[in-house]
Amino acid sequence: MACAMRSIRGILSLILAAASGAVLADWAKVASDDDIYSAYADKQSVRRQGDVVRMQGLYDFRRRDFTPDGKGLFSTVVLREYDCNKRQVRLLSAIDFSGHMGTGTAVLTSDRPRRWEEIVAGGIDEIYFTLACSRD
C-alpha cells in the first residue's frame, strides 16, 4: 500500500508540476500547422536519466477544440519520455487547458503513461525527439 501511495504521489506531482509550469515554461516554437496548431517545447524542462529523457511540449490550437465530455480547450501541455538510444517515445501525462499557451483552467488531465512507440521520420515527434535527445 505504501508503494502504491508513493506512486500516486509521484504521478500527482508530475501533473501539478506540468500544470504550474505551463505558464512559467520557456516555450519555443518548434512547428506550426497554420490551420490547426502551433507546437512548442520547453528545453528547460529536459530531465535526462541515461538514455531516457523527459521533456514538456505544448500544442496551441488555432480554434477551440473539445474534450470528450464537451469542455472547450485551446491548448494541451504534454510530458513525454524519449528513449534516445532506441528512438522511441511515450506520453506520460497530458493536461488540456481552456486558454491558449497552457493558461486558463485545466479541463482534462491524463496521468496514465502510454506504451513506447517508434519515432516516425518527418513527424512532430521526431522534432521533439531531436530537441530532447540533443546534447548541447
What best-fitting shape do the alpha-carbon axes yield?
A: globular
**What CATH architecture label applies?**
Beta Barrel
Q: In CATH's first tier, which class applies? A: Mainly Beta
Q: Approximately what portion of the residues adopt beta-strand conformation?
A: over 45%
Radius of gyration from the alpha-carbon trace, in angstroms: 15 Å
Give the CATH topology.
Lipocalin
Count of separate DSSP helical elements: 2
CATH superfamily: Surface-adhesin protein E
- pLDDT < 50 stretches: 3-21
Domains (count): 1
Terminal CA distance: 41 Å
Structural classification: alpha+beta
Q: What percent of the residues sit in helical stretches (DSSP H or I)?
A: 10-25%
Q: What's the overall average pLDDT, rounded? A: 87
Q: How many strands, what sense, and barrel or not for the largest sheet?
A: 7 strands, antiparallel
Listing every helix as H and every strand as E from the N terminus to the C terminus, the arrangement reads HEEEEEEEH
- Indicate the multimeric state: single chain
Number of strands: 7
